[in-house]
Amino acid sequence: MTIxxxxxxxxKLGDIWMxxxxxxxxxxxxxxxxxxxRELARAAGWKAHSYLxxxxxxxATNVEPEPAxxxxxxxxxxxxxxxxxxxDSSDVQSGQTNKIHNRSHASRATRRLHG
Length: 115
What we know:
about 120 residues, three-stranded antiparallel sheet
């Protein structure tokens, strides 16, 4: 007997990125631990330190999840201590909204038939 499964289409996740909560807190951690911009930028996986400088100056706030995790790990803090997680869920939400909308119509129709 052969069992076959029906593949479910993968749900599209929205884009994920991190937002630096407080540039001053990052700068303070760097000073306390004697970590320079170039060193932390390398730990984040960046080739240059200029973006880290922009984060520290507050002119940039968005960081990809992987470098954010590397920065937090290198400084010995939790990711959520430094960053907020943001998900662009407009595509996901519209898909979920359609599912909920369809379910609610189906349940109303069933109630009408049985009630």
